[in-house]
Amino acid sequence: MTPKATAFLAKNPTFIGAVAGYRFYEHPTLGDESPLVYIKDGRVGLSDFWEVPTLDELYDLYDIPKAQ
């Protein structure tokens, strides 16, 4: 896990849900006034989602190849 992801989790954000290995959290200081924050493969990032996405929404937005 990156130091940035570790620092983020140290703020005790609220876990919202997980989809395809992406773990979504509420922003620890902005709450629902910010898109969800995600952790994937030990890296943290700000998503484009305000609610936990469906698998198809996640694949479409991030151009993740769908399993056949």
Structure write-up:
There is one protein chain. The protein is 24% helix and 25% strand. It is of the alpha+beta class. The chain has one domain. It has a four-stranded antiparallel β-sheet with strand order 1-2-3-4, covered by helices on one side. The N and C termini lie far apart (30 Å). The mean pLDDT is 89.
Strand segment count: 4
Please give the oligomerization state of what you see.
Answer: single chain
The Cα radius of gyration reads 12 Å
Q: Could you tell me how far the N terminus lies from the C terminus, measured between alpha carbons in angstroms?
A: 30 Å
SSE class: alpha+beta
Protein topology:
Blueprint: H1 3-10, E1 15-19, E2 22-25, E3 37-40, E4 43-46, H2 55-62
Antiparallel strand pairs: 1-2, 2-3, 3-4
In short, what is this structure?
With 68 residues, the protein is α+β, with helices and mostly antiparallel strands.
Keywords:
68 residues; alpha+beta; globular
